[in-house]
Design goal:
A 5-stranded mixed sheet has the order 1-2-3-4-5. The protein has helices at about 1-20, 25, 30-45, 50-55, 60-65, 65-75, 165-175, 180-195, and strands at about 80-95, 100-110, 115-120, 130-140, 155-160. The longest helix has 19 residues, at about 1-20. It is an alpha+beta fold. It is globular, with a radius of gyration of 20 Å.
């Protein structure tokens, strides 16, 4: 009797602690997701590279050699004003050290084109690591191309597939970060083949 009372009390205390330590980030992740998306899209639509840069974590602003190149690629590719957006998927993660991240991909519809954007936002942990850590963009029509990959958050910084030169630079950067384009193409071919056989 006493043991089960203490077990219940323990669970209640843990629940209160978790709620006080940012459980709102999970229970309201869609709210945060939209906030982060609107924040980055507003900065892109301002056309001001400094506005975009300021949203990235301070450690990346200091140490990323190609952040400014990537921001220019995004500004080159993205045209118009967002009219609507559609989530393709998102995921949240928490660690014991207080680090909280949200990774998300959206289809963006503007009055001048259609795009796909992926981002990784760190909301907890070390202060210098909070902010956007990954923002990548491509045209919607290229999202499923085997040589286009915007959804690889291990590749920190900013980039957009705005030209063949950008694609060469980006794909070299992704390969160096550990992404395997050959394996990606193989997996995509297998998925497409299985869909045709159904």
């Amino acid at each position: 009797m006493h043991r089960s009372f203490y077990n219940i009390l323990f669970l209640l205390i843990i629940g209160i602690i978790l709620t006080g330590c940012g459980n709102d980030f999970y229970s309201n992740s869609s709210k945060y997701d939209k906030e982060y998306l609107n924040e980055i899209i507003s900065a892109i639509e301002s056309g001001d590279s400094d506005n975009i840069r300021s949203l990235f974590a301070s450690d990346l602003q200091l140490n990323s050699e190609d952040l400014d190149i990537g921001i220019q690629e995004i500004l080159t590719l993205y045209q118009g004003t967002m009219t609507s957006s559609k989530s393709v998927g998102s995921a949240t993660e928490s660690r014991a050290n207080g680090k909280k991240t949200l990774y998300s991909t959206y289809r963006i519809y503007t009055d001048k084109g259609e795009y796909c954007i992926s981002y990784l936002y760190q909301a907890g942990g070390d202060a210098e690591k909070k902010g956007f850590r990954h923002v990548a963009l491509c045209k919607n029509e290229n999202y499923h191309d085997a040589d286009v990959m915007i959804g690889y958050p291990d590749c920190e910084g900013a980039y957009a597939y705005c030209s063949d030169e950008a694609k060469t630079r980006i794909n070299k950067k992704l390969t160096e970060a550990g992404f395997d384009f050959e394996e990606y193409k193989k997996d995509k071919d297998e998925i497409q083949a299985s869909l045709k056989n159904k």
